[in-house]
User: What shape does this take?
Amino acid sequence: MSKRLQAVRGMNDILPSTVQDWQYIENLLRQLTVAYGYHEIRTPHLEQTELFCRSIGDVTDIVEKEMYTFDDRNGDSITLRPEGTASCVRAGIEHGLFYHQTQKWWYMGPMFRHERPQKGRYRQFYQFGLEAFGFSGPDIDAEIIAFSARLWKELGLLDSLELQLNSLGTPAIRQQYREQLIAYFQQHHDQLDEDSQRRLLSNPMRILDSKNPALATLIANAPKLSEHLDDESQQHFQGLCTLLDKLGIAYVINPCLVRGLDYYTKTVFEWVTTELGTQGTVCAGGRYDGLVEQLGGQATPAFGFAVGIERLVSMLQARDSEHRASRQPMVLSVMAAEDVDFSRALILAETLRSRCPALRIELHCGGGRLKNQFKRANQQGARWAIVVGDEQATAAEPFMFKWLQEETLPIALNESQLLLHLQSLLEQ
Ligand code: ATP
Ligand code: MG
Assistant: This one.
């Protein structure tokens, strides 16, 4: 027997039974982007490998060990995108969209990282992100953070998430800080794990981002970048904190928050929960003022964030099912009695779809006994069923309208009575 085919490890099918939670989040995100005046950008899933090496940084987890990179048939090195920001910057430069203009963009789609699969960590996962270009002040930082806070509020998750903020200062300040950090960790070299020892000289700030609990105390006692910030970065950070205070958005300043990508400057932030175990960061972002220039464009300040949709879906799924059920569309089942011409049910279903677009019409195809059709309708969560040509029906009133979950007597109706009846039920 031939081997059974399976999905690639760490890449998930999103089955019809859970897709509605995804659609709910996606629809909400789309609505919010309209309310905030952000415009969608869609970029290819494949980019030249160099784009990610030059933007994310050579000594980061992503570029060192997580990218899906291969040579295409021409021998060009191609990579499946591990994140969305680099592609947005590339597209903006390529199409000249950063000259004397500001841009507010959003994207949503799959990202690919060859990580060890575990709950909340997959090899193909989905991100939604916002990116704003051309704004240097803390106003845009505050707007984008307000967007994320509103998203949690709408999803009923605000109480479960904590906003953590930090400032990474300018590259010049970071350079000085780097020396101090190396000196500190060198003093405690024997306490570092293998990854951190390797990073010590190449990217010591990444040690602060380590998830290894054995390093927690060492990291907590490390010198803090926030104590060495330049005036401009400090003012920017203060400005952001004031705006968040005015918006009533609570935050915690976490001096160890550094983010796993090299391109950040000044503000960085994460929304963190304790509900998802070690995969507790749901959303992360910050300012990346140097990236456009670094990739060959004109110097352009920028700010953005990305949220992992899988982690949101699992938080939502842990919530009460009542909340989720209230988001379901109303379901109406249409079936034909055993000896009735199926085309009558088909035509009725089409009419109902034109006249009552808010309803989900489940037309029973495949025939069979009415008893089984009702069983199926119940499984589909139908509230009502219409049977064409039921034995109680007459030529003048050929449709039997039945309640599936309530003790209400069925009624026989003709088509126009049926439409009126449904409309009045839907208005209630
Ligand atoms: P982590 O520290 O958890 O590895 P990261 O710093 O690599 O996260 P970002 O690149 O900032 O993550 O991505 C933003 C968000 O995308 C994360 O907060 C998370 O919700 C989600 N995310 C990142 N990697 C994965 C993954 N492999 N599987 C599922 N979601 C992910
Ligand atoms: Mg990661």
In short: The longest helix spans residues 16-36. The pocket of adenosine-5'-triphosphate (ligand 1) is lined by residues 83, 113, 115, 120-122, 125, 127, 260, 279, 281-284, 306, 308, 310-311 (CB under 6 Å). DSSP finds 16 helices and 16 strands in the chain.
